[in-house]
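Form 7-S
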Amino acid sequence: MLNIALFGPPGAGKGTQSEFLIKKYKLFYISTGDMLRKEIKAKSKLGLEAKSIIEQGGLVSDEIIVQIIEKTIKDNSDANGFLFDGFPRTYIQAYILEGLMIKLNTSLNCLINIDVSEKESIKRLLNRGKTSGRSDDNEKVIKNRLKEYKEKTLPVLNFYKEKGNYIKVNGEQTIEGVTKDIDKIIKQELSKNLLNIVIFGYPGSGRGSQGRALAEKFGLEYVATGPMLDAEIKKASKIGKQIKQMYENGLLVPDEIVVKLIEEKIANSEDVKGFIFKGFPRTLVQSYILDGLLKKHNSALSKIIEIEVPTLELIQRLDKRSKTDNCMPYDTSTEKIVQRLKDHELKTIPVIEKYKQLHDVVVVDGMDSFENVFNKLSDEIENGFKNLR
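Output:
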């Protein structure tokens, strides 16, 4: 879930940027003014309370506003996230929002402040006044609005600066420039919320078929080194020709090539909720590479899953597969199968042990039917998404 608070003085262009964020990232727009009007129109209990206060010339209390915001969020729980405009407006409201986010098992990703000088704000609003016909677009009223904005907003901005999730954008550049900067911020925030999974298991455990099925169900990108290398050979790319030559000479493809392909896949993947890695990392060195690679892209591993299948069952499965079109190079003889299992034990089991020290490695029994194993894995991934909120 992506939750953003958008700030900026009058004339900063929040309306334009809000439209962009709502449209591109399917965020639900939360404006306290709009919500109050909606509740009043609906004649809800909260709306009637707010109406009574407004008619008497009072300010609607935080008590009522936070209940309306909570109701709005709960009523739109299927949204990708929420864009807050005009809230929090005070230091106290910043604490209220923090508490509300905790109650709803989520958090505010960041506060984006479209920074515009007072001189530029006045200039923009006076120009707007020439065509808008708005009575409040005159210099005296504008200066009072800016003064009030500074007095109330500065403590809120400091609150989020201290939290470390305040981001300032230069609002005096072109609209396109502001949009580009905000889009970059959002992409960085989204990358922090990716669900990145490594799925381990001996050859024959079913990690490949399960990984592909899980990726399709949850909108994850399936990253398997074997198919990626084969795709380069098929394309006859420069790297593909190198890989083909290595295969023909019985050589292993070096990490330099594999990592480059994985990084390209991560960088070029858009609108994905995360990645499922199969076949990488296969060694301790590769595990450190993957950690560094994800960190470079402002992300990290979320979950490690190991599909556990007894050795005799693995040999039987691989021997059976050797007689099908899905035969792998190491399936062609019992000797090769055993050697591949040994390689996994010597090189990959230490990787799993390393991750056990850093993460909770979830072990799933792979002896059940494909469907039952898939359901168990699905439950783990659903829990992973919940923990990202």
